[in-house]
Design brief:
The structure is a single chain. The protein has four helices and six strands. By secondary structure, it is of the alpha+beta class. The chain has one domain: Double Stranded RNA Binding Domain, CATH 3.30.160.250. A four-stranded antiparallel sheet has the order 3-2-1-6. Strands 4-5 form a two-stranded antiparallel ribbon. A hairpin with a 4-residue loop joins strand 2 and strand 3. The chain is globular and about 45 Å long.
Length: 131
Amino acid sequence: MSNAQLNVLGDFKTNKDVGVQVSLNVVQFKSDDVEVLYAPALELYGYGNTFEEAQQSFQISLAEFLSYTKTKGTFESELQRLGWKTEVVKEQKKFTTPTFSELLISNPRLTDIINNNDIQTHSTNIPLAMA
């Protein structure tokens, strides 16, 4: 596995030009000699022959998720479906990811990945739109 730092920062804004950064756990593993990055809190994958290719693929998946949910108006409901908590703090929405232990309980895919692969985890900040 690569020891390179995972960096999926980008610029995603709503029409209000307001964004929010969240810390996101990303699991890195190999499957049939392919590097895979998986963010269980968003159920997003990226993959490639190298860590860098997997990172680029993950960035595309993330951008597509954000764009699609923003366009369809389903951003907040999708986060709630995925177990995120939403609260209003000082007139701004705050999104909180499920904990890793909550994800292990609710996500059999993540449990399978952890039980059957040599993994590395990364915690990274990513921008999410305010819905």
